[in-house]
Amino acid sequence: MAKLKLGSYWASACGGCDVAILDVHEKILDIDAAADILFWPIALDFKVADVEAMPDGHMDVTLFHGAVRNSENEHLARLLRRKSKVLVAFGSCAHLGGIPSLANLYDKKEIFQYVYHDSPSTVNAEGVEPQPTTRVPEGEITIPRFYDTVMPLDFVVDVDYYVPGCPPTPKQIWNVVTAILAGNLPARGSVVGASLKTQCDECHLKKNEKKITRIKRIATEQPEHETCYLEQGFLCMGPVTRGGCDTRCQLSGVPCRGCYGPVDGVLDMGAKAISAIASVIEAKQESEIEQIVAQIPDSLRTFNRFAIGASLLRRKTL
Amino acid sequence: MKRISIDPITRLEGHGKIDIFLNEDGGVANCYFQVPELRGFEKFVQGMPVEEVPRVVSRICGV
């Protein structure tokens, strides 16, 4: 049987997804035995020109990590879509915008102003900002255009499958790889390498009745580690977040932050989370409700930690 | 002027590109290293609850 042709690319990403792939440890040798990897910048020396030279549809599967934040990310998304039979949005950034899409609460001008001018560690007396094209004595050099808005992969190209997580767990990555090798993938458009249930369904913590009268923060209070964190008043994204990660955050002693994205059928993760939290607030007076809600720090980013890019809000008004 | 572009630089975390310009003798006339990425963590962590910051900036580099 011909070896599977695999690609893996990072757009606006941190490399954590690539490291999670390597965290399958010795099974990477099984992947190598079953597949030829034709593009993988973190590990192999193939260039963009090598991908451009491939016939369309040449690669069987490309795992695309990272959000689309600039014109290079978009170019690679379109290029890899064309060259791959199956394109997988891999990890929270490609899936939902991820942490980089928190930048959507600002625009390019505000980000450039701080990073290249105002930040205490910036030294830039001439007030230079990166330009897409720069004339140099030898010719012209270029860098990508920085967009105002960070997008998940499927805002730019058709995506065949989604693997959630920041990063996806190595166990789930291996499940996905074996499904790919066996040709055993579900319907196109599915989330794979995760569960159909919520985090709460899979969480080991004891659950009783949820009645929150005060919002607590792990920065200032210590939770106890046997009872549901939400019941104790610590905000947890568990009720709306897809399971499948083995509840790694809760096992580490902190509430879920939502990196696995919403369960099926949820249009907007942040709105669903607000609805879930609102339903467990215990108050008799409207003023009491207001007083409890006011204790939620940074609610916009708390409820959309990994999903601003894909949210209905999407970004601050330009 | 002949140009050699190395795009992307591989086997490191992050994105990079190098343009090398060669003179008529084939020697290196000049070389430009470009960083084609920015995400703006410096800006978007501002105002965030302090307990979130270490868990967000750990996504600057996950390698």
Write a concise keyword list for the protein shown above.
heterodimer; A: 318 residues; alpha/beta; five-stranded parallel β-sheet; two-stranded antiparallel ribbon; 9 strands; globular; B: 63 residues; alpha+beta; three-stranded antiparallel β-sheet; 14% helix
Description:
The complex is a heterodimer of chains A (318) and B (63). With 318 residues, chain A is an alpha/beta fold. Chain A contains 13 helices and nine strands. In chain A, the strands form three sheets. Chain A has a five-stranded parallel sheet with strand order 2-1-3-5-9, with helices on both faces. Chain A is globular. The N and C termini of chain A lie far apart (52 Å). The mean pLDDT of chain A is 96. Chain B has 63 residues and is α+β, with helices and mostly antiparallel strands. Chain B has one domain. Chain B contains two helices and three strands, in the order E-E-E-H-H. A three-stranded antiparallel sheet of chain B has the order 1-2-3, with no helix packed on it. Chain B is elongated and about 60 Å long. The model of chain B has no long low-confidence stretch (mean pLDDT 94). Chains A and B meet through helix 1, helix 6 and strand 7 of A and strand 2, strand 3 and helix 1 of B.
Radius of gyration of chain B: 18 Å
Proportion of residues in extended strands of chain A: 5-15%
| Multimerization state | heterodimer
Strand order of the largest sheet of chain B: 1-2-3
Uncertain segments of chain A of ≥5 residues (pLDDT<50)? none
State the share of residues found in helices of chain B, binned by percent: 10-25%
Largest sheet of chain A: 5 strands, parallel
* Alpha-beta content class of chain A: alpha/beta
| Percentage of residues in helical conformation of chain A | 25-40%
Concise summary:
With 318 residues, chain A is an alpha/beta fold.
Compile the SSE list and pairings:
The complex is a heterodimer of chains A (318) and B (63).
Chain A: E1 4-10, H1 16-22, H2 27-34, E2 35-39, H3 48-52, E3 59-65, E4 68-70, H4 71-83, E5 84-90, H5 92-96, H6 108-118, E6 133-136, E7 139-142, E8 146-151, E9 161-163, H7 170-181, H8 199-202, H9 229-232, H10 248-251, H11 269-278, H12 286-293, H13 299-303
Parallel strand pairs in A: 1-2, 1-3, 3-5, 5-9
Antiparallel strand pairs in A: 4-8, 6-7
Chain B: E1 2-6, E2 17-22, E3 28-34, H1 41-44, H2 53-57
Antiparallel strand pairs in B: 1-2, 2-3
